[in-house]
Amino acid sequence: MSGSIPFYQKHHRHYDRGYRSKEVESAMSQYQSSSSYAARSSRSSSSRGLKASSYSGLEESRLSPVPKRAKPTYLAVDKENQIIGYVVPIFRGSQEFATGFSNTEEARVKESAAYMARRNLFTSGLEMERSEQTSRKVAMRESAERITLSKRIHENEEHHKRMNEDSLMHAPEFVIKPRSHTVWEKQCVRLHCTVTGWPDPRVVWYKNNVSIDPLAHPGKYKLESSYNVHSLEINRCDFDDTAQYRASAMNSKGELSAFASIVVKRFKGEIDESLPSPRHGLVSEYGITFQTHIVDKFGVSFGREGETMSLGCTVIIYPALHRYQPEVQWYRDDVLLTASKWNHMHWSGDRATLTLTHLNKEDEGLYTLRVITKSGYETYSAYVFVRDADAEVEGAPGAPLDVRCLDANKDYVIVTWKQPAIDRGSSILGYFVDRCEVGTTHWMQCNDTPVKFARFPVTGLVEGRSYTFRVRAVNKSGMSYPSRASEPVAAMDPADRARMRGTSAPWTGQIIVTEEEPAEGVVPGQPRELEVTEATKNYVVLSWKPPCEKGLEGIMYYVEKCVSGTDSWQRVNTEIPVKSPRFALFDLAEGKSYSFRVRCCNSAGVGEPSAPTEATTVGDKLDIPSAPGRVVPTRNTNTSVVVSWEASRDAKELVGYYIEGSIVSSNVWEPCNNKPVNGTRFICHGLVTGESYVFRVRAVNAAGLSQCSQESEPVEVKAAIGGGIPHASPTPPYGITVLECVRDAMVLAWKQPTFAGGADITGYFVDYREVIDGVPRKWHEANIKSVSERAYRVSDLKENRKYQFQVRAANMAGVGIPSLPSDTFLCEEWTIAVPGPPHDLQITEVRSSSLVLLWKPPVYQGRDKVNGFYVDIKEADAVEEAWRGVNDKATDKTFLKIKALQEGETYVFRVRAQNKAGVGRASDPTEPTLALTKPGTKEIVVDVDDDGVISLNFECCDLTPDSKFVWSKNYEEITESSRMTLEIKGNKSKAIFKNPGEDDIGIYSCLVTHTDGASSSYTLSEEELKRLLEISHDHKFPIIPLKTELAVELQEKGRVRFWLQAEKISANGKVEYVFNDNVISQGEKYKMNFDKNTGVIEMIMESLTPADEGTFTFQLQDGKATNQSSLVLIGDVFKELQKESEFQRKEWFRKQGPHFVEYLGYEVTPECCVILKCKVGNIKKETVALWYKDGREIKADEHLGFTEGVLKLEIAQISKKDAGVYEIVLKDDRGQDTSKLNLTDQGFKDLMNEVFSVIANSSTPLKITSTDQGIRLYTFVSYYNDLLQVTWHYKDSAIAFSDRIKSGVVGEQLWLQISEPTEKDMGKYAIEFNDGKGGLRRTVELAGQAFDDAFAEFQRLKAAAIAERNRARVAGGLPDVVTIQEGKALNLTCNISGDPVPEVTWLKNDREMTSDDHYILKFASGKFASFTITTVNTSDSGKYSILVKNKYGTESGDFTVSVFIPQEEGGKKK
Known about the structure:
With 1470 residues, the chain is mostly beta strands. It contains twelve helices and 101 strands.
């Protein structure tokens, strides 16, 4: 803490420690015990860093051995320590501090200064720190301090008693002056001002120097005064309220007045709206009615820069009273002029004169003389044009104008100006800004290089000094004259001006608003709210706010920059810190991005940097405005023309427009105004009667002048009937509906007037009135500025109140009469889920069978966004139930072409919107529309000119002077010219595509305003665009059409022919032959032919060599048309062609002797025999043909022959052993020729595939048969080869063979055996023959009846097989005849089989035998049957049989036994 002495120690010499007596200390102790509230208040105050002082400037002092820093005072004192006011600190973040003032108790304001000081003292308290155990010494010291302060207060009161009261008084002063207003008729307006002064001033309001008495005009005027704020409210203004109003403040120290003007306007179009009509009737103040006449008027005047001009009129006032003089006022562009060095005004009693001492372009404008009497006023106006002075240097531009200073600060100011209208043929390169310190005549240039932007920040000003500025323009020819100097501006901190605001107190002169006292020795904090306020390619302007934490002395700033993407910060103002919280940076690289930050500094050091700005790219952010739209000139007088135009679209910070005129065919353009005009209509004076002029308009803003608009149609200068205004105001709108309603606002829509008055409707005005209990109240204006759309949101309504609305339309002729009052609508918030009704339905392109309906989406979306629209239609005279839908599926567009209309029928339409919640309420129906194509209706025609430019053309035969062509894409007006250029010539309009592409695909339409619905559309589809681009290319680059492109072919003997054919070429056609960019000509190597009748162009080469590899080109020219065709012969392509050429050459020589016409090949016969054959030519009897296989000659046999030049070799039943290389040699005395056929590997495989294909094609359909084992599928082929590959399929899948399913081949039969089939085997079976290609498949369906029959047959055969296999049978062992000697034993055994074991029966002579001792019959093991005769005798001879039998069958075996007697046998032998 500093050890400085408090200010009251300096003021009171008697202050010392000895002053504190015991009496004082005792009194202070008593006070301490009763002031707990003050202590609490003191602690609360100190916690927020706020210090309170007494009125007298005295401050408590702690009696501490260590001196404390002087605490801040809140009393403003002069050098003699006289109190002149309060300094009120700005308290941040606290609302608890009680100042003791009350806004509702005016008595408190009148309290004495002593009481206020005492109250401030005890309510603010002292900052004290208490401990639980306070020593007696400390308590005594605190008591003494309070006694001291009480004495100081008493002394201060005595001081004020001796004080001169006049030192506190001061004259009235306007802190806030009344502001001028321009209002519409029947509006209310309020003027208010804030006045300070002591004693309190008395404020009186005057109208045209006549005191306003509210009682004399009850309800008209209302005066209010509260806390030095005074107001005058004028209810329902009318023309008589247009006047100058004055607020006069007076007290004992003086008087001061402030002025404001009120201009009341009425919707009267071309009539001067800014000036009211005279008031009629007697003047009550004097009882006299004055009649004012202005004669000997000044006319439209033309001057030049630097000249002097006087404007004057003679004023006749009747009756003439010498004691009464009227008030004479001069206006320029409705702005009141005051006397200055530029304007001298004089009133001689009967003549008013305005002298412009030194003309500048700022003086151009509409000058109005207003003569005000007690009965009203009269006005007269005329335009003054100021032309540029002759340039010092030929070709130098005109001087800039209207130089002004903005945002003035301590060392910084922004200078703005307006660009001149003329540059004298050379574009303006930029501007130089000069400054001059007030009181000197030395001008200093502020910028080294010219700036193109009409705004420039000037830095380096000296704080506290005043400056004026001027601007000069420069082009290639030289420098212009300097502009008129600006008004002086002081370089000072805006906060110094802000400190002058506030209200006065009766006990001081003024309350000064300031921030808290800065702390001593504190490094300032971070600047706040740093931002880039302006960025151009020449400079960037930064602005910020000072930090909250400051040092004791004033702070200054360092600015740092950083290129985006890096972390390198560079200080900009390295030498001298800036004082203002504004800074302009120059010499930045255009196109680069920078970030900026600021540091504060003072004697204690440099603070932390602020937060950096966002990256800012150096470049002009404000674009030059687009060219104005259509320019329409209208006859006015014999020397003037009214020029109107369409405003520039999307223009930002528009300053105004310059108009230029030119006599037709002269090509010399002269400016019609040298000061930009703000409207879109201007009267061009000074024209030559009878001449025809064209006009064009340019828009201007700070970035520069726009391109010129299109030239207007020529207009002849002569007086027009009706004063040049051949229009009427529009008829009333109608059909007012509500599109959306919330608690305090309603969105209205209406239909356009049936008659626009012959001119474009410029806007609409909406009025509303409340309806209470069915009684309408007075109308109120909803919008002061006209709205161009036919929908408007009326705000500030009251919920659950009823309202009516009316709408008026306006055009250049004025505002029309209002519509009929709408239905009564209740203002309540819509909560329905579905959307509201669409609006603004329009019908265009009406034809006999179709039309296009346009609409705008609903304002009220409902619960979800609108996702589609439905269109309804009905006949105009049909009942309400006749509405029917046009589209079954919702369309997401806001337009629809409705087709299939009946010619001559009248229809109405409506639209409904839908969202996820459903379909909303339908819109109001359109007006009835007759489906009929009007005579003379034209359609849009697409055209491609000779230069290949694609354009859409529309012609209208019913144009009016105010008609204009409106082009749209997808029914949205084309407002930008990036892709199309629009041209209008006469009654035709052309939309020219700049660079047609996919972005241009869409529906293009053209509407002609102020006609009976002339419109048409054209759909540019992707296919149509492609077609047009092809035509455009053909027109742009005309070519000779070719039937064939350049081609190459080989001729006899291997010659190479290059050729092409043109579709059509004249006798003047020329051809150049180019090889590798070198022109070649007729010679030994090249032979050229050009048949102009057929268009065939050829070039022949005998052969190709490696040097001929490259590109061959034929270049054709026939007048303007050209074409060329190239053929690239390089790499493999060239090698193949060269190889083929060489082959053909060799072929030619080969064919001179016996040769093969067709080389050796093969064919397979249906019998699967392979025949090798070739065709020969140019043979004779001596010609020999020899066959070889693998180099070995094949001897001639019957298969070899010379039948009709064909040689054949047959191979029957081919197999692998037949694989090999076959060769045939053909020779005689003229030479020989050889042909080979490789039938190995792949060649043999291909041959066998051919054989397999023949075999497959010979196969029979797949058939089904049954066996005792199962079902068999089979097919027969004509020949089977072991190499044949066959695949069996079941249900399209290859069969995996097993014991149950097998395949095989028997002879030429291929079969598939299914053993023991079941129902699972049912399905589709196929056999596939593999021939190396697609193969052949034969199929059969084993299902249904086929399966049942096959299965039944299988069962039968199986049973038969089982029976056959298991039946009883005699397997063998029995002889047919047995011859045996009597007495011998006979034993025969045979094998018996059968299942079950058969029964065995022996028969003798067909009689059953039984086993006994003589005949022993045995059957052992079920297999062996034995027959034994123990002793044979002759009776045993006979036929014997064995009979075996089981359930499957019976079988017998017979044998014969012959018994002989040996003697008989012997006798016979003998």
